[in-house]
Specification:
Layout: H1 2-9, H2 13-16, H3 19-41, E1 44-45, E2 52-53, H4 62-94, H5 99-110, H6 117-129, H7 134-137, H8 140-151, H9 153-163, H10 168-176, H11 181-192, H12 194-209, H13 213-218, H14 228-234, H15 241-275
Antiparallel strand pairs: 1-2
């Protein structure tokens, strides 16, 4: 069938490889997004009074924007923490000469991904409750620690993939030019791995800012420290059309806000590199 389309429309064979992607994108990305817009824009009437309800009332509520800011702030801090931990770990592992040590370290990075996120959150909660009382855990600080713990592999893996391809000759040339180790790290290692760092930070930020598990399973009273994901989940009541409309509205606003922040995360480092005369990340 695909070969017939190629011959009929004279498509490039390489472009035909994108057809499955476009089909999946249309089904799982474009169609749900259109449904969100339709649900958010469709008027909903009160079953008792018959009055038209305001689907956009959540974005007029200051509490929604307070939760949105908390989500963005927590995601950024979690991303920074995972960078501080993940970058040195990935670099050290990539420099291992022993294949055994490298294999064990890679297994250590990947193995948490095979454990349910809820199970990891509950296990961390158990560890914390063994040392602290419940009221002291209901803080944004504990939530950020949980986000960093749960999503650390998503920072390490892309950074390691970049470090593993970095030629040793770059480091040797830097040392031959007289640069100390710290200078080599700043001038050579970090610029070379900037693409992986930005990718890892963006993934950790997005997952942390929209997380539901951290507030629901890690914190004893998660309703006190909610993220925007928890707010959307609260309104996802299929039996109530107004709740679905509000959840769709919040989801649309969240998508636009997160894409804007993601754009800043990606393009600001790129702009800095351009201004310094470097290579695009």
């Amino acid at each position: 069938m695909i070969s017939n389309l190629v011959s009929k429309f004279s498509l490039n064979k390489r472009l035909t490889l994108l057809i499955p992607y476009f089909l999946l994108a249309a089904i799982f990305i474009i169609a749900p997004f259109i449904l969100l817009i339709v649900k958010a824009a469709s008027p909903v009437s009160d079953v008792v009074t018959g009055e038209t309800l305001d689907n956009w009332s959540p974005i007029k509520d200051a509490e929604t924007w307070k939760i949105m800011w908390r989500s963005i702030y927590s995601g950024i801090i979690a991303g920074i923490i995972t960078m501080v931990i993940g970058i040195p770990f990935a670099y050290i592992v990539s420099r291992f000469n022993s294949k055994l040590y490298k294999t064990l370290a890679i297994a250590l990075m990947i193995s948490p991904l095979f454990v349910f996120t809820i199970a990891k959150a509950l296990s961390l909660r158990g560890v914390l409750l063994s040392s602290f009382d419940e009221p002291s855990l209901n803080t944004n600080f504990v939530a950020i620690i949980g986000m960093s713990y749960l999503y650390l592999p998503f920072m390490i893996i892309p950074v390691y993939s970049v470090f593993s391809t970095m030629p040793k000759s770059l480091l040797e040339a830097s040392h031959d030019l007289g640069d100390p180790s710290f200078s080599t790290l700043i001038k050579v290692v970090l610029p070379y791995s900037l693409r992986g760092i930005v990718s890892g930070f963006a993934v950790v930020f997005m997952m942390s800012a929209t997380s539901i598990v951290v507030s629901d399973k890690l914190l004893p009273s998660g309703f006190k420290v909610q993220t925007i994901g928890n707010l959307i989940n609260q309104h996802s009541n299929l039996a109530n059309p107004f709740d679905i409309a509000k959840a769709s509205t919040i989801s649309l606003i969240t998508i636009f806000v997160m894409i804007s922040v993601y754009g800043l995360i990606y393009f600001v480092p790129q702009l800095i590199v351009k201004l310094k005369g470097g290579v695009n990340v």
